[in-house]
Design a protein that fits this description.
Layout: E1 2-15, E2 18-24, E3 37-41, E4 52-55, E5 58-60, E6 65-71, H1 75-80, E7 88-95, E8 107-113, H2 117-129, E9 135-140, E10 156-160, E11 167-168, H3 171-178, E12 186-191, H4 194-207, E13 210-214, E14 230-232, E15 239-241, E16 248-250
Parallel strand pairs: 8-9, 8-12, 9-10, 10-11, 12-13
Antiparallel strand pairs: 1-2, 1-7, 2-6, 3-4, 3-7, 5-6, 13-16, 14-15
Helix pairs in contact: 3-4
Bound molecules: flavin-adenine dinucleotide and FE2/S2 (inorganic) cluster.
């Protein structure tokens, strides 16, 4: 983990309320892995005070260039979307634990919803590089919220709440329809809003499939110091920190509410 002040390379609108942020992380000791994240201080003023966490959607070790796909949610991300080229970004990275990669006999099925797209795309690229046979499902409100460009040449099923692109329903509705035909060595990799993760783990539990979830809790410090991102777990250790012990967890470890 290191602190960087690095110029913003580009901040590109992808679709309604979604942007891609590009920057460099030079002299990095341990390059980010899929599932890991960074925090950025968006402004020098007091509002918003806290750093905002975002997952990497790409990291290229040949030139140390990094990307993230983010959605405008509130003040911080709205401000982020207005930053132009060369704006100095105040970044701490890489943070958290990555997704464990599948074994050679396992079949990865990646499920992303809305703001959960970044780490899932990064994982998809890594699986492609390793020659793994993966599939991807992406869920969003409507076709207007679908960043087509990032899905080019990927084996993806689109799920839209209003049916404006491909499957009519949520990513969970889609997962339920294909669940009976999933091979037993399927491994689910999921990132998105809590109800989506909850639904993914329920499908995985019913079919006895391994399932990893990246929990995008609201965070304060982002480095394990405040317990602001506590996640309730099963067993003896009842709370863990999403920022330090996660954000990726085996879904069986979580006490789902
Ligand atoms: C490890 C991690 C990785 C993340 N990766 C990404 C990413 O790749 N792309 C992306 O778009 N977002 C990502 N997020 C979520 C992102 O951090 C929040 O959307 C952002 O901090 C909101 O800031 P804001 O000031 O715009 O909104 P705020 O004004 O703080 O909040 C606006 C609304 O967004 C909700 N919100 C705030 N934080 C979160 C959160 N963490 N999860 C869900 N809802 C939230 C609030 O409850 C509120 O309704 C990630 C979060 C974590 C913890
Ligand atoms: S955000 Fe402070 S411990 Fe995780």
């Amino acid at each position: 983990m290191r602190h960087y002040i690095t110029p913003l390379l580009s901040n590109t609108a992808l679709c309604t309320s979604m942007y891609q942020l590009d920057f460099h992380l030079d002299d990095i000791d341990s390059p980010p892995r899929p599932g890991q994240f960074f925090t950025v201080r968006i402004t020098d003023s007091f509002v918003p005070l806290l750093r905002r966490p975002f997952a990497f959607s790409r990291f290229d070790v040949t030139d140390n260039s990094a990307s993230c796909i983010y959605q405008v949610r509130g003040n911080g991300t709205k401000l982020l979307s207005t930053l132009g080229k060369e704006t100095p970004l105040d970044i701490i990275a890489p943070l958290g634990k990555p997704f464990p990669l599948p074994q050679s006999h396992q079949r990865p099925l990646l499920v992303a919803g809305g703001i959960g797209l970044s780490p899932i795309l990064f994982l998809a690229d890594e699986l492609q590089r390793l020659g793994a046979d993966y599939r991807l499902a992406f869920g969003c409100r409507s076709a207007a919220y679908l960043p087509d460009a990032v899905f080019e040449n990927r084996p993806v099923a689109f799920c839209t709440d209003d049916g404006s692109r491909e499957f009519h329903g949520t990513a969970i509705d889609y997962l339920k329809t294909i669940a009976p035909s999933l091979p037993p060595d399927t491994v689910l990799y999921c990132c998105g809003p809590y109800p989506m993760l909850h639904g993914c783990q329920a499908v995985a539990r019913n079919r006895n499939l391994r399932c990893y979830v990246a929990m995008e809790q609201v965070m304060a410090c982002g480095v394990g110091a405040c317990m602001g991102c506590a996640v309730r777990t099963r067993g003896h250790q009842s709370y863990v920190r999403a920022c330090k012990d996660g954000p990726v967890f085996d879904a069986r470890e979580i006490e789902w509410e």
